[in-house]
Specification:
Layout (H helix, E strand, L loop, with lengths): L1 H17 L4 E5 L8 H9 L2 E5 L5 H4 L1 H24 L8 H15 L2 H11 L6 H6 L3
Parallel strand pairs: 1-2
Organism: Lophiostoma macrostomum CBS 122681
Protein name: CENP-B protein
GO molecular function: nucleic acid binding
């Protein structure tokens, strides 16, 4: 799956813009990212790999868990309500998307929540013990 994504999504969508320059792909240590076919494909196509240790992405991307997941849930709740109230007979337009997404965003994205995400992971205020505890 990883190699198929690399070929059909990442390479196809970034190759033209990069022209002959190298591109950087940052991946976690998940197994499908570390096959020889995956690495060879990157080498042949001027893709530099930055491979993080498994489970470090959580520490490096605190907003994924504390911001984007609640945002996704809030948006999906609005979407389900719209589909339910229309009994699945209404087409969802761009206007519907923006309206539902904006409400979900407004109810979810808060400075306190953002700061809390960085504090929970130990990135800010810097707390190395909290970061290292995750790897025990």
């Amino acid at each position: 799956i990883g190699l198929a994504w690399l070929e059909t999504v990442f390479n196809r969508l970034t190759k033209e813009k990069a022209r002959q320059l190298y591109r950087l792909l940052i991946v976690d240590g998940y197994g499908s990212h570390l096959t020889m076919d995956f690495i060879d494909y990157c080498n042949r196509n001027r893709i530099l790999l930055a491979i993080y240790l498994p489970y470090t992405i959580y520490t490096l991307q605190p907003l994924d868990i504390s911001i984007f997941k609640p945002l996704l849930i809030a948006y999906l709740n609005k979407l389900v309500l719209l589909i339910y109230s229309s009994r699945g007979l209404r087409l969802i337009t761009l206007r519907d998307f923006f309206s539902m997404f904006y409400k979900a965003w407004s109810n979810t994205i808060r400075p306190k929540l953002i700061l809390g995400a960085f504090e929970a992971t130990g990135i800010w205020l810097l707390n190395p013990a909290r970061i290292l505890d995750r790897f025990n």
